[in-house]
Write a structure and sequence with these properties.
Number of helices: 15
Radius of gyration: 21 Å
Helix content: 40-55%
Strand content: 15-25%
Strand order of the largest sheet: 3-2-1-4-5-6-7
CATH class of the largest domain: Alpha Beta
Shape: globular
Distance between the termini: 8 Å
Structural class: alpha/beta
Length: 365
């Protein structure tokens, strides 16, 4: 059996997306140690209930200042020397970079997870992209495997000669727990059509385009509603409050349980600019709901065009409007059919159990 150290930048990164993997590693008889930044005791207790031990490692989660972050490398190196793990698994950018450098210096096998490249990296050119590229190339060149959630992110790093092709492994995102997000019968035909958006209200999630489409749709249809759950960035406060006061949208704030909203919805809309793999889409499909999303890697993988949803051009409010209108005009029976297909599609291609099993095989556990 092995001693496995997991480095992450937040409690929720592991609770939401890696719970099943951590449990399985522990159930196989391995010793699991998790390093996260300071967290509440109930959060630590939750992670330890998976069969792990939690240690706290200070870090600044935001910003990329190599001179400032070198202290994180030193903390990780001391932690790894103390724990003496057989394998190290890292999640998100700072643990990937500084955890990998520490592992490399100590000759410890390590496995990195690139869950998305982020807006700064995906922008054309730019100092931040060059900085992150250089640091990824230096830090992860000795990683045993580097896991990606879509082929687009993989190709960016492989084609840019930042990592070696043989290091890259593309997964079906983090997978979706198809039992937790169980199939729910499609809403009854009451003459209304409910659309739902789940996540942050911010530019990179396609909110400008979605609000444009909503304004056009609501001028044409009185039986259509748009619900939003999550939170908004400060620069969207005014527009959210205005659209809600005008009856164009209903904003419900952050919800710890999204399933009641998905059950009520006829369709989920997610016009994001970039994703690692959209869990919102996978969870909604798992519950039997059609989706409309951007034609980008991290979103398009969840769509079998016309069968469980539609793809729209990224950053194109007019095309998004057309796809929403197309869905509205579908017969009710077709919407029901798309929901059933969505469930089957996710179970076949994105089942969390399959993702966990593949991860364990690649890591050698």
């Amino acid at each position: 059996m092995s001693k496995v150290l997991i480095l992450a930048n937040h409690y929720n990164t592991l609770r939401i997306f890696r719970r099943e993997l951590i449990k399985k590693i522990a159930q196989l008889g391995n010793e699991v140690i998790i390093s996260i930044p300071p967290a509440e005791q109930k959060e630590i207790d939750t992670l330890e209930s998976y069969g792990s031990k939690v240690v706290i490692t200070d870090m600044e989660r935001r910003g990329m200042n190599p001179l400032k972050d070198i202290s994180l490398f030193n903390r990780y190196k001391k932690l790894i020397e103390s724990v003496n793990p057989d394998k190290v698994i890292t999640y998100t950018i700072k643990p990937n970079i500084y955890g990998s450098i520490a592992c490399k210096s100590l000759k410890i096998p390590h496995y990195c997870n690139v869950t998305g490249l982020g807006s700064a990296f995906m922008a054309d050119g730019g100092l931040m992209r060059k900085l992150v590229s250089t640091m990824y190339k230096f830090s992860m060149n000795k990683a045993e495997k580097i896991f990606f959630e879509n082929v687009g992110n993989r190709d960016v790093l492989v084609n840019g000669k930042i990592i070696k092709p043989e290091q890259a492994v593309v997964m079906a995102g983090a997978g979706v727990n198809v039992d937790e997000f169980a199939f729910s019968e499609y809403p009854k035909d009451d003459g209304k059509i409910h659309f739902l958006n789940v996540g942050r209200i911010m530019k990179e999630k396609g909110m400008d385009e979605l609000f444009y489409a909503i304004k056009k749709i609501r001028k044409e249809y009185s039986n259509v509603t748009f619900d939003f759950i999550g939170w908004y960035e400060d620069n969207y406060r005014e527009i959210v409050e205005k659209m809600q006061s005008e009856g164009l949208i209903s904003f419900h704030g952050f919800q710890s349980d999204v399933t009641p909203f998905i059950k009520k919805a006829n369709c989920i809309v997610h016009p994001s600019y970039h994703e690692g793999m959209s869990n919102t889409l996978l969870e909604s499909c798992s519950m039997g709901r059609p989706i409309i999303t951007s034609n980008i890697h991290g979103c398009l993988e969840a769509v079998d065009e016309g069968k469980n949803g539609y793809l729209c051009n990224v950053k194109d409010g007019e095309d998004l409007y057309k796809k929403i209108k197309m869905f509205i005009e579908l017969p009710y029976e077709k919407k029901v059919e798309m929901g059933k297909y969505a469930r089957d599609f996710v179970v076949k291609n994105f089942n969390k159990t399959d993702v966990v099993d593949k991860t364990l095989k690649e890591i050698g556990l």
